[in-house]
Amino acid sequence: MLKRGRGIEIKTRSELEAMRAAGIVVARALRLMTEHAAAGVSTGELDELAEQTIRDAGAVPSFKGYHGFPASICSSVNEQVVHGIPAREQVLADGDLVSVDCGAILDGWHGDAAVTILIGAASEADRKLSEATRACMLAGIEAAVVGAKLTDISFAIESSVHRSDEADGVEYGIVTDYGGHGIGTQMHMEPFLPNYGKPGKGPKLRAGMAIAIEPMLTLGTDQTTELSDGWTVVTADGTRAAHWEHSVAITDEGPWVLTAPED
Fold first, then answer.
1. For residue 186, what is the enclosing H or E element?
2. What is the pTM of this model?
3. Which amino acids does the record list as binding a divalent metal cation 1 (predicted)?
4. Which of 50, 93, 127, 200 is buried most, with the most CB atoms less than 10 Å from its CB?
């Protein structure tokens, strides 16, 4: 039975297992995106493959039709941060950086995850950017434990970014306008999770909560602009961006990554 904790949906173990089933569908789709994304392939083709994969699993693409969004994935290329609209006319080229965000609904439960894919001979700067973004996502996941406060996750993400800054000799921009969110019977739920901030603030994490942890980093600014299509978000200074995301359950045994690949 669903319960509420300060406005945050609390799931039973069986309900989290249902979310894991949805998460596996998302993981399969993202694995195929990673395998098929290459120079000469369009983001529209990736979108069609993702939708077919999701529907073949008996699930529904959660993005398609969401507030009018026209596709089953978000494909954000180079300076695009999030919510890029895939198109047959957008053909990936050698050296591109593409973040693919994917969601699926299975038996009423949502899964949501994102990966950043390097196309062909990617630059060292882009590789490090993607690795730094994935590393801070993993740091956030590690902090998602029973008894912690919500912004302990935020602090873990920001601290990881600063470690990458020092290691890579780059000051990565932490996108401030977007962040993680609760997930379960809806794709976007309370609480909103900033990707930076002081620890010890916000609601206490309880077993049964599920949160999408999704940092977005740039090679420059932390500021973004939305394009005239009403969806695509780009860096304000034109620098490249990366985006990694997992849906994570808070359990008494520790964080459970619901969108992790099966293997």
1. none
2. 0.96
3. 101, 112, 245
4. 50
Average pLDDT taken over every residue of the chain: 96
Residues that constitute the known binding site for substrate: 83, 188
Residues 102-135: b if buried by 16+ CB within 10 A, e if exposed: bbbbbeebbbbbbbbbbbeebeeebebbbbbbbb
**Taking the CA atoms of the chain, what radius of gyration do you get in angstroms?**
17
* DSSP H or E stretch at residue 229: none
| 218's tokens | 């740039």
Structure tokens at 96: 């591109």
Name the token pair of 63.
């993005």
Annotated binding-site ranges: 83, 101, 112, 181, 188, 214, 245
Q: How far is CA 124 from CA 97, 168, 171, in A?
A: 12, 10, 15
- Alpha carbon distance 239, 81 (integer Å): 10
The one-character DSSP state at 120 is S
pLDDT of residue 2: 45
How many CA atoms lie less than 13 Å away from 101 in the CB half-sphere? 29
* Sign, Cα dihedral of 260, 136, 132, 49: positive
Q: Closest by alpha carbon to 88, among 42, 140, 149?
A: 42
**Which residues of the chain form beta strands (DSSP E)?**
3-5, 8-10, 60-61, 73-77, 80-82, 97-106, 109-118, 173-174, 180-182, 189-193, 210-213, 216-218, 224-226, 233-235, 241-243, 246-249, 256-257
- Annotated binding residues for a divalent metal cation, written as ranges, equal 101, 112, 181, 214, 245
List pLDDT tens digits, range 100-127.
999 999 999 999 999 999 999 999 999 9
